[in-house]
Design goal:
The complex is a heterodimer. By secondary structure, chain A is mainly alpha-helical. Chain A has 20 helices and 3 strands. The relative contact order of chain A is 0.14. Chain B folds into 2 domains: 171 residues, Rossmann fold; 66 residues, no CATH class. In chain B, 47% of the residues are buried. The chains are: A mainly alpha, B alpha/beta.
Chain lengths: 474, 246
């Protein structure tokens, strides 16, 4: 039950904020950017999803109608797989512009993802790509600072704090009333944006389900916690510092560190702690290991394999084998390649995840990093979910190759280069069916960020309570 | 000097018991003892730094005492912040208000925070007029007010609160003689209504006119206390100057 006096403070703070021309202009600007970025993101995500679906259908059609050919030729012909855009990807496009969203699945190779907008973007385009997540992560906290920095320091500077406290209203009630009043004014900006986002989700979800409502609800809570932490921090500084100018300088410093310095530091620190090879180095390593194998993953011994086959089938010559030896050797080669890929890509992904953990740890100093990790995770655009899809696509590729090599092995004889499979084989190969991870899986990957963000909220509230209790009156 | 539980067995409305405040090496207030009963106007006289404002800040709970107690109706301010503040009204040297609000809107807000939110706008407007504000100024923004007009809003805030005790910190400083006289008349009216008043002031004349007792402070200590009935203007000035030159 909110005390009577707090209600009066909330009402006054709320109307003061609304009367303030700075708030009106800032909120119009932030609100417009938020709505535009939401709309733009939704249209873009929807368009991308539509194009992906069309391209996926075309790729499947090409696969099924490739005509009669040797199954190994079909394996080289390959097929494209497209990472689906999840419903909330219009809020936060995450790492998708950098990792790509489609991959060509072919024999002998685990290819890199394609369609990376960042690859083609100019520097200016990269700066200008504004998403709803960026508005929520950077501009709303700035607006909170502008609304809150004078909350207590301003009252003290004007001399009204003495008058206020002499009425019998407690310092905590005053701070709470101001916080809720400012939150109410912010709600005028955020609730319509949230409603537009929810409508976009309901009316025309751009991607597959993957519990979009639950993800959206958790995403909303994450951002509310982030904003509440900023509000509490701003109040704490406003209660502590002697002048509004000092408060503003400190809070703008916090904003710069949180939004600009810490992310850069996190990137450099994580790269320094867990270096990754360049794309060229990585490709050369894989190529070298594929060519000659490694100590623990030797290239398959074709002679030994052939000997084993002859023994298994009790024949003297390859020509007498009831199967096609080439199919077995090709599959052995695939499985050798798979081990090389597993080791190299696995190490690379693990390094990316360790870098991500460093980012989440740096969030202890900058809550943006925790919010960003959670936002991308819930939008389905983080590195982990990219890996999740990449793994599914690779599993599919391996199954496809097994089918092609199996058909070649079973339905032709060694030395028979004229064998051709047809539409029946291509159509019997199921399309890639991808189930996006559950909300529990996503949150399980982001426990550190959840804890850090919760810690930020609890910490800032405790600091604000302590600072407000000891706030100087004059 | 009166002590606690005087009168009809009730504690004084305002009471200091060995009240002290130290800021680092500076002793701002040193073992102050005083008691103010309903209907009394106690004027604290003294130069800047004598401890007058510190005394008022201690009664308001704006600062914590280094020793002793500030009591309001027998309740310690340190442990009963909310209860004691509801019995107090405060008018500072310069009443600071919200410039973007009218005098009436300011009064509405402060009255509501003081627990008088049920007073209607008309009643509050009447209180402003009773406090000396012109009727047509009530709805004007405070940014257009003179210092005297702001003081009158401050008085109206105190009146609307219907507090048992009034703390005044140089309330007539900077007011013209007419406004000062009106202020004195108002204090007199409140006193007759049973309000206890503690007023810090430099103004010997106003202290003699308005007060029932006068305490002279120096270096944080109460050096003497006089009843205003016992002494004339000239004598008060003489006693004051004697203590200042000791």
């Amino acid at each position: 039950m909110i005390r009577h006096s707090i209600r009066h403070i909330i009402r006054k703070e709320f109307s003061d904020v609304l009367r303030d021309g700075r708030f009106r202009w800032c909120s119009v600007l932030v609100g417009a950017l938020l709505l535009v970025s939401l709309g733009h993101g939704w249209v873009q995500a929807r368009e991308a999803q539509r194009e992906h679906a069309a391209a996926q259908a075309t790729a499947r059609d090409h696969w099924e109608s490739q005509g009669e050919k040797n199954p190994h030729s079909a394996a080289h012909y390959g097929i494209y797989a497209f990472k689906p855009r999840l419903a909330l990807s219009f809020v936060d496009e995450g790492v998708d512009p950098y990792t790509g969203t489609s991959v060509w699945l072919e024999a002998h190779r685990q290819n890199d993802f394609l369609l990376r907008p960042a690859q083609d973007a100019t520097s200016a385009q990269r700066i200008g790509a504004l998403t709803a997540a960026q508005v929520l992560q950077h501009l709303v906290p700035l607006l909170i600072i502008l609304l809150t920095f004078g909350a207590l320091a301003g009252e003290r500077e004007r001399g009204t704090l003495r008058q206020l406290l002499s009425t019998g209203v407690g310092r905590r009630d005053l701070a709470l009333g101001k916080a809720l009043g400012i939150a109410g004014a912010l709600a005028l900006l955020l609730v319509p944006a949230a409603a537009v986002g929810a409508a976009a989700l309901v009316v025309g979800s751009p991607g597959p389900a993957a519990s979009p409502v639950a993800r959206a609800a958790v995403l909303a809570v994450v951002y509310l916690v982030y904003f509440a932490a900023f509000l509490a921090l701003s109040l704490a500084v406003s209660a502590w510092a002697r002048s509004t100018r000092t408060v503003l300088v400190i809070l703008l410093g916090v904003w710069v560190v949180n939004g600009l310095v810490a992310p850069r530091v996190a990137v450099d620190l994580s790269k320094w702690m867990h270096p990754t090879p360049s794309a060229l180095e990585f490709a050369r390593t894989v190529e070298r290991e594929m060519a000659s194998g490694t100590e623990d993953i030797p290239r398959p011994d074709n002679d030994a394999l052939t000997e084993d086959l002859l023994t298994e089938y009790g024949v003297e010559r390859v020509e007498d084998l009831p199967i096609n030896q080439s199919g077995v050797l090709l599959q052995a080669s695939e499985e050798f390649g798979d081990r090389i890929f597993d080791r190299n890509y696995g190490a690379l992904w693990d390094t990316f995840e360790r870098q991500g953990a460093v980012h989440e740890l740096v969030a202890v100093a900058a809550p943006l990093l925790a919010v960003r990790a959670l936002s991308m995770g819930l939008a389905g655009t983080d590195v982990e979910q990219h890996r999740h899809f990449a793994s599914a696509a690779e599993t599919y590729r391996r199954d496809l190759m097994r089918r092609m090599n199996g058909d070649l092995t079973e339905n032709s004889r060694s030395g028979d280069f004229s064998y051709q499979a047809g539409a029946e084989l291509w159509e019997s190969t199921p399309p890639l069916r991808y189930d996006a991870p559950t909300l529990g899986w996503v949150l399980g990957n982001r426990i550190l960020s959840l804890v850090v963000l919760g810690g930020w909220l609890a910490g800032t509230i405790l600091i604000a309570a302590a600072r407000v209790r000891r706030a100087e009156v004059t | 000097m009166q002590t606690a539980d005087s009168g009809a067995g009730r504690p004084p409305l305002l009471e200091a018991r060995g009240l002290s405040k130290r800021y680092g090496a500076t002793q701002a207030l040193d073992s102050l003892d005083l008691a103010i009963e309903p209907g009394e106007v106690y004027c604290l006289l003294g130069p800047n730094g004598a401890g007058k404002t510190t005394t008022i800040n201690l009664f308001l709970g704006f600062v914590s005492p280094s020793g002793g107690q500030a009591l309001v109706s027998g309740m310690d301010v340190s442990t009963h912040d909310r209860e004691t503040k509801h019995r107090l009204a405060y008018i500072p040297e310069q009443v600071m208000l919200y410039r973007n609000l009218s005098g009436l809107e300011n009064l509405e807000y402060f009255a509501a925070l003081g627990g008088k939110g049920s007073l209607g706008r008309e009643r509050l407007a009447d209180i402003l007029v009773e406090a000396g504000l012109e009727r047509d100024a009530v709805d004007r923004r405070v940014s257009e007010y003179s210092k005297g007009m702001r003081q009158k809003v401050g008085i109206a805030i105190a009146m609307a609160k219907e507090a048992d005790a009034l703390l005044l910190d140089e309330p007539t400083s900077g007011l013209d003689p007419k406004a000062s006289n009106e202020f004195s008349a108002l204090i007199e009216r409140l006193r007759h209504g049973g309000v206890a008043v503690l007023m810090a002031t430099h103004d010997l004349f106003r202290a003699k006119e308005t007060g029932t007792r006068v305490g002279i402070m120096r270096y944080g200590s109460l050096v003497t206390e006089l009843g205003t009935d016992e002494i004339g203007h000239a004598d008060l000035e003489r006693v004051y100057l004697e203590h200042m030159h000791d």
